[in-house]
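User: ok so my PI wants both of these folded by tonight, can you help

Assistant: No problem, let's get them done. Here's the first:
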Amino acid sequence: MMILIAGPYRSCTNDDPALINNNVRAMTEIALDVYHLGHVPILGEWLALPLIEAAGSKELGDEIFSEIFHPVATSLIVFCDAILRIGGQSTGADEMVAQGKAKGKSIFYSLNEIPSAQI
């Protein structure tokens, strides 16, 4: 399965870059666990952040950031089989879960819920 990892990015960070990096690191680490289960993990951040930089965003949450960040992540839902919701409070991650449910995607809330597969 291709599994979208949905977790906090900016939530509860007060836009502190170190805390945001911790959030991305947490999602990336669990993505590696998902890969070891035999699935293809994806984070919207992996695609959106380079695009945001290339588009010339000057600060977190500016118009360019807002135009790209969540739309890229939510557009991935159509290509994924499932969503793994991790971490704490996040309006964006909760929205991805809601959209995934509406599209009939499997929703996991723990790595233990994901079945192992062969690569």
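One down. Here's the second:
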Amino acid sequence: MAEDKVKLFMAPQFRSGFVVFTLLILGWTSFCQGQTSQASPESQHRAASTGEQSSDPQAPASLSGTIADQSGAVIAGARIKLTRTGDPRSTDNSSGGQEAVSDSDGQFSFANVAPGAFQLTITSGGFETRTSSGILLSGEVHMVPQIALTVATNVVDVQVGVSQTEVAEEQMKVEEQQRVLGVLPNFYVSYIPDAVPLTSKQKFKLAGKTMIDPFTFVIVGGAAGVEQAQNHFKGYGQGAQGYGKRYGAGYADTAAGTFIGAAILPSLLKQDPRYFYKGTGSTLSRFFYAAANAVICKGDNGRWQANYSNVLGSLAAGGISNLYYPAQDRNGAGLTLENGAIGLASTAVANVFQEFFIRKLTPKAPKETPPVPKAPAGF
């Protein structure tokens, strides 16, 4: 928890007396002094708790705040340095400043700070350095608005000793908070154009998180209901048993496509399964960039290349579906190519929606427009 805030009670006390000649006048004067010169403990406490300025122009102040990431999750262990910025009213213009470390709730505080202009410099492993400045009034109890740190985009500049795996893990945590309308998972989109490549373990972790997400079960269940209503795959029959078979087939299709196309093949071929948001350029260039990402992707080396993972993954998922679809609906290579083509087309359509609409509907997406990711010539 943050340090206890310093309570300042600076109300001056003035006492005066008059030489009087009667006991009645002396008693009346003493009574008036007692009523007008004493500041009640309640008023003193109220002045301190509401951050009112003290009458003493040099009364020390205090400030506190919270450090979080772009998703709103608090960051523990961040280092906060308080320095003076040469305000003429300040009595502390030293360059050394004060330092604090955010606690388990991401909170920090500074006490006995001289009034005047100040600057906070916040650093934390895996995040860009952030600064915040302001002016403290005499005796003020100042609460700094929540400071959000941005995930570092250049591993070399992040911090010496921080591994790529750790940076990738932090970036993936941000992506796992991305949900369209706060519900639909949007994990496979990076708004950081130079995001650190995922390790094989992280690729499987992201695929697994997608498959156990509640909304995945909802989508598969809805699709199975539509198939049953239209009597697709008649060999499954109707009723609860037919619905169960359609649901199982649909979930198997989703699992095969996700793990093969976004985990197994990307790990073997060292390719990144995520879509890298472009965000700038002409509408036509953004459209072709998004559609082309169904067949091109970033390699783990940062270079653009043919998206073998998605193409082969779609074909593999289509071929596996021949194992559990009704016999009359299996037509070998025909079904495999059909399902593969559907997979690629759906990826292209999804990418176009990502580029033009989805970011606006994703509350946890970064607000700033990132630099344009370097794409192959022609996009």
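The chain has two domains: 1-12+20-150, 155-361. The first helix runs from residue 23 to 36. Good luck tonight!
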